[in-house]
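$ fold --in a.seq
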Amino acid sequence: MSIEVMIQDGESYLMNNYKRLPISFVKGEGMKLLDTEGKEYIDFLGGIAVNSLGHSPHVVVEALKDQIGKLMHVSNYFWIDSQVELGKILAHNSFGDKVFLCNSGAEANEAAIKLARKYAYKKYGSHRNEVIAMTGSFHGRTLATLSITDSKKYQEGYGPLPEGFKMASFNDIDALKNIVGDNTCAIILEPIQGEGGVTAAKAEYLKEVKKLCLEKDILLIFDEIQCGIARTGKLFAYEHYNVEPDIMSLAKALAAGFPIGAVVATDKVAVAWQPGDHGSTFGGNPLACTAAVATMKEVVEKKLWMRAEMVGSYFGQQLQLLVNQYPFVKELKGKGLMLGLELEMEGASIVAKAFEKGFIINCTAGKVLRFVPPLIVTEEDIDGLMVVLKEIFNEMEVVE
């Protein structure tokens, strides 16, 4: 199907809720994507931090080929071996003891909220149900996760949103303390905000949040859907801070491109759920878990977080040169291979120009160029992107 016919049919039959570029990719390998016209692109977006092992990673492809010929789906009325194996890998390599599996990041955050409320309900009663999130947050697009996503744009037209949610200023412990009350059951935050502009939590702030949670018996939920799975130079971002949550949500890179989400929790919290309290028809099915097991084994055995730290350090050094050279580039943000360049102006035109030159990047929070490439990105790939960014920035200086 030609791209013209695809667009025509797509506009006829698909809902108009995505602003798509007039491009369709037909093949991907490693850092590269190939479109219908045969043009090659270097991908520094990675499906929005999803394609952690690159496109069509051999270990995941082969695992799925083997599994799909055996068993695609059974319900959670039965034990699924790859589901158990994935739970074991996540528990053994994190703070957690128990795992719940679902299909996406939004579902993982929904489950995390439900688990926290159930825990508080059993211990304190129905009044203790309030969840506090942070400004700059993005936790998903379901009704509940919209309530803890700090964006009027995403919320508009979907009211009334569910009750029981509040918002505190990120990295401001006094603001948080001022709204914590007897009804607060959980605090949810991203250690490094993705959609909010690649903004990292301050170390002292997270320590104070944890201290507050311990004092008040409030559950701490870390949303590591974008910053988890080796992305930041640690297997999980919370390891940078030596602060462990009670609950953690995961998705995106967990299966290197196959849809899956997970909630990891301590035994203390997980015991709040008993059979029938929560569920998911497709959650933890054999295909998704097979892909996730193959991905996590590759990440853990090769310690890809160390590679993210090393290559991310080089990437950061190169991006810092842009901060030093161009007055409209304000700040380098992020950790590892989750990096952002904050600009003085909107960044959409820069993203478009980079795309024309064969590099896929992204702009988040309006003015932050975001780079979340596959963990296999090389210094040579980075050098190629830097050439393109400098060309674009030089053209912008001339215009000014």
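$ fold --in b.seq
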Amino acid sequence: MKKNPRILHIGSNIANNVYLNALFLRENGFSADAISPNYDHPISTPEWERAEISSENIPHILKTHKIMGIDPNFTRPSWYQAGPLAEIAKNFGYISKTSNFGMADKYLKKVLAIVGLLNKYLKYMSVNEFIYFGQLISTFKKVFPNRKDRLSYEDIIPYISEIRALKHIFKQYDIIQAYSIAPIHVMLANKRPYIAFEHGTIREMPFENSPQSRLTALAYHLADHVFITNNDNNIAAQRLGINNYSPIPHPIDDYWFRKAPKKPGLKTKITTIFCPTRHDWSIKGLNQFILAIPEVAIKSRRKFEFVFIKWGNDYKKSQKLCTRLRIDKHIRWTEMLTKKDLVQKMLESDIILDQVILPCMGAIAPEGLQAGKPVLLSYKDELNNWAYPESPPLIKVYSKDNISKALFDLINNPLKAKKIGQKSKKWFNKYHSKEVIVKKTLEVYRKLI
């Protein structure tokens, strides 16, 4: 690997993946920057991960999207930038120009225009851009011969102004790690090498009939390497003809775990089941957890309490379902939690609920494993075994029936739950920690730069 390489992580900072991966590299002495153009959601920021935030401030933060300065002792690192791309590009010394073509380029334009090759594209792109984009259009047709839709100049034109700004930024780095649909920009900027980092991105999007879908498909196919975090997406990678891909865990920080009190608080005889997942039934399936509670109440010999967060498009539907099922006495609702409070709540709980839709881990499950708790998740070993040498000690659940069975087994056997939790923490440290993520990242970098 090149000595002291300059590394850029770019893309929408969803789940703080962009920020955390760059942070982990910097903590290991590497020069890694992160930018999240045109995206700055308050939950997806350095402040949310590491600033000392009071839970009382959360409603204001979510309403105003203002999180910077919320902790006077926390300063956003200079190596992380978010917001409008135009402002970020200015910070990199980019000056937008209406015309950037030399005399030879103008002459070629006239020649090509005469033969009708540029037509209406003359006002949008230079000759070099026209030729390169044309090569991409041709490549798309060769790579995906069975697709009815086709990549076109019209698909690319909306990206051109951004691409010129990003080219200026990219040339200052040795390698680019682009997240979600950001590989489109790196491909169009003709920057090499680049890594495409998917977090659910390629499951469906690349196969739809839209400009973004076509460009996403090609950008992932042409990437020098692809990191897959949703392990079932190795199927999508194969459909896209990607050969150079490898699994990598979602970045999970240990900051608040390290700062948490070493001695646990007084433990009550009530089993606490904590579900930090958002209430979007079609995406997370939390209604299945709620539907299982009546049977849990019948068969459990110990007292228990479910803790849900008022978060997601369907949380009010969840509240109504709890009332209809007459289980409100077993439910406690809490407002959105800060990252610090979320970690503390996990550590205080006995069981963690993730989701009942996707067959792989996102961010909640590994957080629960790191906390040393049994985690319930619709995880399928057959889709994940290629990514981990050892299956995680998750409690696999797929419907209200096996959810209820798993829950009253854990509630009635606290010693069993504790042993599973101990295995969970050991597994996380061995296969999902930030040390593992950095190691896997650098193994790929060494092959490319």
